[in-house]
Amino acid sequence: MGRPQQPPRIPSRKPLPARYLRELRQTLRNLVFKLLGKDPEAVVVSFASGDEAVARAMVEEIQRLEPGRRHFTVTLEDFAGYRQLRRRFRRYRVGLAPVLFDGDPKFRPLRRAAFLLAPTKILAYNARLERHHLRLRTGIASLLFLRGVPLDRIFLRPSWLYPRKRDRSTGRSDYRVLEGRPFSPDHARVAVLSPYFPYPLSHGGAVRIYSLLREAARDFDIVLFAFTEDAGEEYGPVLEFCSKAVLVPKPRYREPRWSTWRPPEVNEYRSAMMQSLWDGLTHELGVAVRQVEYTQLASYGGDILVEHDVTFDLHRQILDRERTLSAWWNWRRWRSFELRAARRFERVVVMSEKDARQLPKARTEIIPNGVDLQRFLPEPERPGRRLLFIGSFRHFPNIVAFRFFTEQVWPLLRDRFPDMKLTAVAGPDPMLYWRAAAGVPEPAPEDRIRLLGFVRDVRPLYVEANLVIVPTLVSAGTNLKVLEAMAMDRAVVSTSSGCAGLGLAHGESVWVADDPQAFAGGIARLFEDPDLRARIAASARQIAERRFGWDSLGDLQRGLFKELSRPRPVLRPAGERDLADLDRIQRASPEAVLWEPVSYLFYNSLVAEIGGRVAGFLVWRKVNDEEAEVLSLVVDPVFRRRGIAARLLREVLGDGRAVWYLEVRESNDAARNLYRRFGFEEVGRRPHYYQDTGETAVVMRRQKC
Description:
By secondary structure, the chain is an alpha/beta fold. It is built from 24 helices and 26 strands.
């Protein structure tokens, strides 16, 4: 057999080189655009639809990113409507259209025209000069970007909705322990937890923590726990009076701010490592008292909570001004968290009477902010019209205050006083916080406004100032910058919230004004009346000397530590050996109901011992699986104001029952206030209930939510 015949071979064609394909596509594209009457080369049309300086920066950046293209810029001044714009760019192919979205409503027509001209080519810029391509396939992200959400948070998703998301919150397991002053065998030990290391003294919170701990270190050994942000903190000055500093890196929080019931500021500081150290190391070191600085750290637990400001009050002021869903949500969750957190501490330190009134169920102690009277010594005022504003931009109300003054008050004074100058001290990295809060890269430039960052010593700035301004629109607590000005013998023009809680009087020790016209008028009045300015300053200095020196406030801090560092009560069930003590305590307490002591043993009875001596007792009974009743709670008068009653209550209320009842004498205000702190509310009254006096009984109930 012969071999089968093979089919003829068809020679294969080599693929065209990529160069020829590109040239072919270019030729076809040129032909198409020539038929359409357009230039085939794509151009960049930038829309300066916002602040002039920001728009200029946007255009310059685009020119650097696309150096090989032809660039055009459309401004509001040369914009005469979409039809004119369409005619102008009729023969061009728009390849990219950068548009600035900074929220200014007067540029809306220009932005709308950009969408009509090149709807699929929009490169949106926000006021922070972040950029994002607007695309239908990323519609939600594009909408969030246009609403001002920072670019790095646009794609965050709540973990409860996206359990497999990659960008999760993370905490670090490393920490450092720095050794400071040796422990003294004669001193009790106190631990203090802070969201930052309190040095350098770049803002009011750091000044307060540093000053009061330095005062407390006279009688106590201080162990400081603090979060760090690797910002080059200086440790030496604090370690001169602290025995140890335990430093934990701040966690990286990656949840949308709206997505949690707890305030995001609380979640930002949740660290398993810090919690472990705070619980374990304080026990190991034999710490007698634990103090937590700031409400956002309250969930760590302790004995004393320092409310530098009542945070939900701050958000209520924002809500009153903005009336938005976001503002309401922030106020609502802060109020819920803060009121519950304050009740869990033996003491809550507040800055003023106003703050104390807002925490009615907490056991509050007022330790105001203060000033170093030996450091801030008055010097004679120099001729001129120089204003001084001090407020770290790290605290967003200071940014609101600075914008209020520079955008609404300064224009009313600028032409009237051509020699007037303003110095503003904005703290470390001011533009970082400015961009996050204000939504623009930097404040508008003004040749008579000097903006400084961190200033190690602000005293020379007070010396050169003629007036100190505190244009704070939203504020809580009390402002240290007002106290420093008072100590330096400089008159202050402030809003009502800026000087609240300091006991100052308008026209006597401060000038108070709350709207732009009144604020400008107050500055003008004091500039033109140096005698009035001097009288206000002298009166304020006297108040600072009398009430706000750190040495006298340090006595209050040490007194609180001493009270809470006394031996803690030991709780145990009552027995027959305690009957004589129970009878002694109830007879020494006129407000108590006299029972036969042996009858207490038929119920659940708990005694508190201090140093082997019965200091108080609590008797309660189960009504059913869901209800219980407190029958008697009495503390020996010798041991009162040591938190014994609260300790006993806290122990039995943890029984798990949903509803608790009790009766208390109408006249026993101290007991009723204690019960309110633990969530009891008045639900009724029983007239002539107490047989010994015929007094009315107030019925109170505590119900779990």
